[in-house]
């Protein structure tokens, strides 16, 4: 249960911060026929209430949005990239949250990166599976890379790739 508590709300919280930071009216949509993708990069995921973040929003072409959050010392705290952003919670965002919760229940640790590719909406009857891809040491921390796949009747609806810093 500790893993769920430590990482379950990162994707939703970062999207909420983005919704506050991105100017009103900015909408990004994926190219026709492509999956919705989101990439969350958490460099300093354990913030305090004293942390003040400044957002740097950049559109990259017609189909990409990059938002970086820095602290007072100009250290990068979070980075969020997507090819689909409306400023409100979408079914794709809900699928990302479901996949993050599933991942957190399966693997202990602090979430550091979470990439997703949503091909179709994830209904309540969908099946989730996960696998540990590798463990390694990075900057003195034990890390684990994990994949999650969401299917329905054998069809892949969504995929996620997560990196966790493992507990000591």
Kindly summarize this structure in a few lines.
The protein is 20% helix and 43% strand. It has helices spanning 2-7, 10-21, 91-106; strands at residues 36-42, 54-60, 64-70, 76-82, 110-118, 127-138, 141-152, 155-165.
Structure write-up:
With 168 residues, this protein is α+β, with helices and mostly antiparallel strands. Helix content is 20%, strand content 43%. The chain has three helices and eight strands, in the order ααββββαββββ. Strands 2-3-4-1-5-8-7-6 form an eight-stranded antiparallel beta sheet. A hairpin with a 2-residue loop joins strand 7 (141-152) and strand 8. The two termini are 16 Å apart.
Write the layout of secondary structure elements.
Layout: H1 2-7, H2 10-21, E1 36-42, E2 54-60, E3 64-70, E4 76-82, H3 91-106, E5 110-118, E6 127-138, E7 141-152, E8 155-165
Antiparallel strand pairs: 1-4, 1-5, 2-3, 3-4, 5-8, 6-7, 7-8
Sheet with the most strands: spatial strand order:
2-3-4-1-5-8-7-6
Report helical residue fraction: 10-25%
Individual helix count: 3
**Major β-sheet profile:** 8 strands, antiparallel
Q: Shape, please?
A: globular
- The structure class reads alpha+beta
